[in-house]
Amino acid sequence: MTSTTTPLTQLSAWKSLTQHFTAIESTHLRTLFEEDQTRGERLTAEGGDLFFDYSKNRVTDETLKLLIQLAEESGLRQRIEAMFSGEKINITEDRAVLHTALRAPRDKTIIVDGENVVSHVHEVLDRMSAFSERVRSGDWKGHSGKRIVNVVNIGIGGSDLGPVMAYEALKHFSQRDMVFRFVSNVDGTDFAEAVQDLDPSETLFIVASKTFTTLETMTNANTARAWLLAAFAGDSSAVAKHFVAVSTNAEKVSAFGIDTANMFGFWDWVGGRYSMDSAIGLSTMLAIGPDNFKAMLDGFHQMDEHYRTAPFEKNIPVLMALLSIWYSNFFGSESIAVLPYEQYLKRFPAYLQQLTMESNGKYITLSGNRVDYTTGTIYFGEPGTNGQHSFYQLIHQGTELIPCDFIAFGKSLNPLGRHHDMLIANVLAQSEALAFGKTEEQVKEEGTPDWLVPHRVFEGNRPSNTIFADELSPSILGQLVALYEHCVFTQGSIWQINSFDQWGVELGKQLAQRIIPELESSETPDLQHDSSTNNLIRRYRATKEK
Ligand SMILES: O=P(O)(O)OC[C@H]1O[C@](O)(CO)[C@@H](O)[C@@H]1O
What we know:
Elements: H1 12-25, H2 29-35, H3 39-42, E1 44-47, E2 50-53, H4 61-73, H5 76-84, E3 111-112, E4 115-116, H6 117-137, E5 150-154, H7 161-169, E6 179-183, H8 188-195, E7 203-208, H9 215-231, H10 239-242, E8 243-247, H11 250-256, E9 263-265, H12 282-288, H13 290-309, H14 316-330, E10 335-340, H15 348-360, E11 378-381, H16 392-397, E12 404-409, H17 419-436, H18 440-445, H19 453-456, E13 464-469, H20 474-495, H21 506-520, H22 531-545
Parallel strand pairs: 5-6, 5-7, 7-8, 8-9, 10-11, 10-12, 12-13
Antiparallel strand pairs: 1-2, 2-13, 3-4
The structure holds 6-O-phosphono-beta-D-fructofuranose (F6P).
């Protein structure tokens, strides 16, 4: 399917932004703040329970007006409506994109292919809740009658990163007499370390895979089954009590040997990286309980409603996306740092890497043409204050412009003396330092010797957003994740790419399937790769045989 949209760079807002950029490029944030004393209050927005301060960005009212015009001219409103209503906007896979249906209230109706998907969503949620209650209460017993205390999620990509991130983020709300582990890598070390201190008779494996064909997950699931059966003298009837599956593929689940009664389904209109609030979140629900999981879904839904209904100039995901496009496409900035000042969000940047880069790392437009502008910003990050002692040097004084998203909370879930005040002082100090820097005069006034002055100057003018909420609750986590999901969709819509396929991961998978037998065969293989790959294969085989 092709579409005949006006190319992005031909839009009138794009052309105006290109001109406008030359005026803004040399304007310092110091000037913008001096000229408008109300800027810090004015350039803010609220959505759900999130407060968004975007005043420390290199924009004027004119820039914002043009960026919003760009969103309008790009057809963003229609794209949002098309997504929420279940149109098949994932054109390269002919699928609807309905992660928003996963958190729709029970009484909503969204029809896809003649079916109300919301009722299916709630059927699965009810089954997940009943199962979670049984496991958490000890009613669900292992094969030898022991209570399940260990839960190991086996999955990769979207079937791992969301569950791990959510478990870590909501650990404060988790059932502490249970152990949760996550195995993703085909590197055997991942499995070996995850189970080394676990008793198989007390362990439940969740095999989480949308397709149920993924090499890593199937390899780990087979290893897990062998590990379990070794403890039960090969009695395969033990599998029923120790394995459940989360998948869209019932056929493959049952071929693996898991009873589909122990399967929790989802649908092809849920992308892997948009699935942590589907049955893929079973480990999250087991950890925090159905009520907290529901609170998380309500949080997602609040942000969905904000995205769908707030005017663009007050719409946090839209503003965030437009600002990122401003830096990426006009300032030539390549990355964004996400810096949560909340230890529980330590896996949030890793989660966002897949969400953002697997979604928008595309150079072909929806019309099938190569883009002539940059797409797919690189997202990275670490929790503060740790990152400050690592890569912030480059953000402050490097030659790259790296816009930052700071995330901070009014209250700590673990209030300890002065810790939280210090943490928050640091996040505020960082965004202040980045924006305003320290001038040559200021450095000299401190008595710095002349030769050292240039090293100690901070030119500033480095943009950031601050996302602020009361405290990290299940609902706030849902709101934060939905915020980034919708930011990614807005970016992709403006860039005119399909944020919901991932063909770019296929080639490596195919080539690995070809190489596996070449590494394993007892015969010397007839290698037909390039000379580098052939040589490395020979070296590996020689090492293996040593
Ligand atoms: O859930 P599955 O089907 O095992 O896929 C895992 C991951 O692999 C990918 O397809 C990429 O290889 C991701 O999009 C997905 O989240």
